[in-house]
Specification:
Two copies of one chain form a homodimer.
Chain A: E1 6-7, E2 16-17, H1 19-30, H2 37-43, H3 52-65, E3 68-71, E4 76-79, E5 92-96, E6 102-105, H4 108-120, E7 124-135
Helix pairs in contact in A: 1-3, 2-3
Chain A binds a DNA duplex (30 and 30 nucleotides) through helix 3.
Chain lengths: ~140, ~140
DNA sequence: ACAACATTGTAACTATATAACATTCTGGAG
DNA sequence: CTCCAGAATGTTATATAGTTACAATGTTGT
């Protein structure tokens, strides 16, 4: 197979992905929950992946474009759950500590409150990390 | 020196600390900003620290009692900035990406909004990780 | 064909965190 | 006091997460 960019056809394709980016995004899309970079690496051994860097490079790009989110409190990654990975600014994640599933949360009041907090003491927010750890409805 | 618990006299002492916990808390109190576990280890070599576990064990306890907070997005730790480390539930951290300093934020409306979000889809929040990355007033 | 650039491959390394087990200290029961 | 139990500590090895440096290959435009 020659090297080229691939449109990833998971039903929607806002960006063209390279081969490795496609493979990594595929692994994350198949997964029920978040995966660590090394878990992804293991899943892609058969596709020729040998070193962590191959995964991290792909993840960097995918996170940059918003197709994948990084969960700081887990050191893990999830495919964005929004159709088309387009708009939808996600502000928060709800992470179930029992089943491991992650829900994305978009909440205008929450965003607004964070913006307000920001101005208060002159702090400028560039990125908000909001991760709610707990139990999902199914696991309660 | 015989082994015993020490009250840590940083002006206020809500809990009795063991020797190692005291040393680790001291290192974090002295620091301007958050420290990684391995940075703490290096600073405590002269006090007899040799292995990461000595630091992590102390940190576990200090985090549990609320005297130290863990910053998930940095893999680092800060001494709680509240006098006496007693009440004051901290809900969020403002982390300056230039000078590295961290401010603790207690905000009732923010907490309230997170509680509301929770009930919405049956998710039960056990712990909220809120870390705002950006620029502090001094660095803007 | 060839130059310029993007993508990928590979090895070694640094950073973060835990597991398993041995030792020492402290405080209480006999 | 002695001995025992539990807490705290020490030590070695290992697991997990992420980066640096450099080589090789593919792709595109001229």
């Amino acid at each position: 197979m020659t090297q080229q960019t691939h449109s990833h056809d998971h039903g929607r394709a806002p960006v063209d992905l390279t081969k490795n980016q496609s493979l990594v995004f595929g692994a994350l899309s198949r997964a029920e929950g978040p995966l660590s970079a090394y878990t992804i690496l293991d899943q892609l051994r058969d596709d020729g992946f040998r070193a962590p860097l191959q995964v991290y490079r792909a993840l960097d790009k995918l996170v940059e474009t918003g197709m994948v989110h990084r969960l700081e409190s887990l050191n893990a990654f999830v495919a964005c759950s929004h159709p088309g990975c387009d708009s939808h600014e996600t502000i928060a994640f709800a992470i179930c500590e029992t089943c491991g599933k992650v829900a994305e949360i978009s909440d205008e009041p929450l965003e607004a409150r964070i913006r307000e907090l920001t101005g208060k003491d002159g702090f400028t927010v560039k990125r908000a990390v909001v991760e709610l750890r707990g139990l999902c409805a199914a696991c309660s």
